[in-house]
């Protein structure tokens, strides 16, 4: 059967580790390689097969030796592949390159990598493509790309081939010259870098290098020009800071050869795509930076073209040129011009948001010719950026969010510098920024989208971050935020987040504290009558954050709590909303550790007591009682210590999560029983093993029927009856279940401990059940067996509600509901509770005795008696009947199974009912004669028989054509 | 200067999000590992990346009004590079570039090629601007010309991505952006020493054709108030389609201005422009200090690629807006008195392809009765009953002035579009118009000035048009939002 490779490869890419857990790496790799060699597979599929090797070579080739073998294998597939499958062959080259580089075969010069290098160079030089159908050209381009990647990952690998590559570049007139130019510049750059690392290397060495005379170039290590693997410096860009140090090669002013190579590369740079051009310029910038003998003015001819470009990467490479050469290439006028250009580009209507954001970032890291400081500071304005120039970038409400924030940030910086000391308040720019912030707030008030809300709070944070010291504005903002909150309480979490972050980032400012204080005031001053439940919810959140602040007096909060829970019109306590209750408690808990607790003690105790007595949720009552006890019995120090554990956990981390997690904080959650949202586990019935139930049956010889005498029967019945003098005798049903996790995975509940199962009855047929304990339940371990002991009052089917309390590994307690348990009628059947010593003979005697009793009782006392008899007939073949008896009645059979004339079945149903069956075949009809000492069971047994015979007929493939139901009563 | 990974994600307004394509560049990853040393952060699997990315872009969990990770006010959403907090927030994958347009989000992770240590500024990483170029190119390729491609077209272009990347970015180092049209590889170069540009996919054979289209776009904010200066600006683009023989043919296009025209500013050119005169670049909109600036002619010598391209763009400061409007709303009891006057400037050709004024009345209830008279054109109420559409047709009357006067009564709740910038008396008229065969700046491409160095006589066509975009006239009786920095200085 064909494997759907496209799907398999997709599954692999989606999650490689997950995919490989279903197979082994070796097997998958072998499969891939086999399929690649398979002639039947199409080449488009084969291209797919290479993607795992291209993308995850180290995963598939965990060792260098596997990498080596795989690469050899791929190369042999390459040589055998017909040349016309160009795309596949190109992908093969890419895969081989990936495998060799990533498994360190290239850096260790393994045989495969040497062979592959040779192959790539051969392809690159192959100009046999006279017909010019372009197929060879694609392959040559890819081989150049592979060579370049190998050189990039193992710098110096191709330094011996510099002359060859230069020659190929110069000869090539097709579009391929771009690939050669890219390769050439990289190899040249790496080779020169390497020379800079050689002590005493100079002009001679450089010349030799360019002429391909590598034996002269590398004096110290003639064998190999490759740089040591440990030196990752060569991999880094050499243009970092204007003041950064670049390794240099001292050649003196005369490096004609290098200059001519550079000139030729630059001259042709126009012919490259913008992306390749940018790359080339960057490499050449590095090169010239390393060789002071070449003046940066070599780039001059390109500059105008580059400064006028609409391509972001080309303009960027110009900025990098400026970064590297500062005033040796750019005059002060140039600098002013470039900055103006950057400002213009940052707001150009034809550019994308990402581009304008990038240009704005470039303004904040502008490579100045003479930077005032080269400190570590993240963002700095160039000196030349005057407020006038920056005014082109003022934020407006028409800007897209990120653009607006970037502009806002820039202007905060502009006006921070502009204002200087003391005069800041006069600054019109700051006034504008503040007005802008307020216009954003108006949009939020007018129902702005979520995006605008978030943007507003981010802008507010930026404003405070830079300009919090202008109290006139920061106080006014505080006031406005409070008003905003009062009308839009759902903004609570945003405000808490803003308070958290300003407190965190502006440790010297007391603004956050001020905001929280002001919020406390507006919350506690607002008329209660207008509060919605939602408002209360958010108010409590804010108050609980406020209660964290030791410096903020809390009487207002206490007053608010006490009013909302005692308010006569309040349905809060009566509603028993658990969430709301725990929100109240969360505030209380914070107050318990508040430094001003002494002054809060009595009102807080009142609140807790009120909750403990009147709150409509038991859990909340319990917790309130606990807090009340802690508060009233422990000293302040001890209380702090008891609650400290939670506080430590809470710490900054929880605060960082901005209290957004409604549940799960410290001690409160430790003491709280949480409700699971979904079913976590369930009870699954274990099918009773009939064979096992019968196996204990003694196999005593059957007594001859004739020998049965009446007296024996009577004594047997009496002995049997005597057992029931003990009221507990045979009064319990034991049902076996397994406790198993539901399929839906929630990793929090994988390991559960101390599970206490509780059952509730849905009718009066059974006695109350006691709770059951299960020590633990682990998803990966066998499920524990739970035996349910039911004491029926009447042996009818029933439904049980089940719930459980358990704890999870993190110490939290949970309450959960299990799916209902259905106890069916069949499950109430028990084998005869006969004394241990009894054999089949005694049981038969008992059967006869009971049968006789029931029949006579029923006849004699039709009205009052519980006894009843009945007859059921159905059409059932002999074989089907045997099957039925064996399947459903074996544990209850008192006659021999082999005795097919008449089966005698005695079923005991606790606490004291019996159902007796005499089953016989008469012609085509099977007669079920039924006798019972509990007439109410007749209809149940009737439906049960109907069910199993129908099932049996279907199973035995017979016809059950009719039923006769006669009751003799 | 390479990318470690690339993702293409499709979504429908933040829902039904899925990674449609992803590519890891293992050799670049190999370099990233060596460069970063112990601070290396591996890329998680696609689904994790997707979730983290959506969180950073602010579009995860759309049904939650507040999500701490998504909505933190500290977030640096103002940077083009995102941080993905992997390993439960302990480590940061940076800088992830993401570009969202239409139903697609494209993202890539450029290699940070600096030694480990403090995070370098984006401006120091060439891979960032290269990544932006690559993503923009892929966007254009995947979405085609419209921003809403049919799903089949998108699927087929996604399926073509592996072979597209084989050309454009085989091993993580971007070489080119995907070609937009299906370009059949044409025949090999005829013998000759001239190198073929890498951006030119083939050679044209046949009669040379040069097609130049100049489109100017005008934006405006008019407040009708003494306190606030009205604003307008114009930007133009020259789109070019050249079919000229030769490997590297020379074409020169010249833009000219009328004698008193104000100089073209902020000129940006296509990379195929071979050389530029420095005077062309001097005028800038961000410092309009130099009155004696160069005012043309603007010569653009270039060697055209085969596909259509944007030769250059500019901005211009024109003395007057093409349509000057005034808008007044008065709240009277339960009705709104509307008064509008629009005046077409005499320099503008009175011949529109279309001209419409939209008057939205959001956040007010439905338009119940619109007892409004217009001096010209046709008035309609939109389907959602929250917008008046005034179609002015192809021509203004001889007086070049039109008016609208009347009363509107609102009732009932409103459904449909909303705009938080349109509440109460903060209201606006938005104008949509297009005028063929004219530009506001007076800039034009003279057909006769186009030089093509070719053996056969080229066929040259030129066209120009003016269109509006974000053309607002604010109600002068309400508060209007500030829209430009010129106001504060």
What global shape of chain B is seen? Answer: globular
Structural class of the helix and strand makeup of chain A?
A: alpha+beta
CATH topology of the largest domain in chain B: Beta-Lactamase
Distance between the termini of chain A: 67 Å
CATH class bucket of the largest domain in chain A: Mainly Alpha
The total count of helices of chain B amounts to 7
Termini separation of chain B comes to 41 Å
**How would you name the oligomeric state of the polypeptide chains in this document?**
heterodimer
Summarize model confidence as the mean pLDDT of chain B.
89
Strand composition percent of chain A: 5-15%
Shape of chain A: flat
Helical content band of chain B? 10-25%
Question: How many DSSP E strands of chain A?
Answer: 13
Mean pLDDT of chain A: 84
Largest sheet: number of strands, sense, barrel closure of chain B? 9 strands, mixed
CATH class of the largest domain in chain B: Alpha Beta
Largest interface (CB within 8 Å) is between: A-B, 146 and 121 residues
Low-pLDDT runs of chain A:
647-666, 692-701, 955-969
Series of secondary-structure elements of chain B, N-terminal to C-terminal: EEHHHEEEHHHEEEEHEEEEEEEEEEEEE
**In order across it, which strands form the biggest sheet of chain A?**
1-8-7-4-5
InterPro entries (chain A): AP5B1, AP5B1_barrel, AP5B1_C, AP5B1_middle, AP5B1_N
Keywords (chain A): Protein transport, Transport
Protein name (chain A): AP-5 complex subunit beta-1
Organism (chain A): Betta splendens
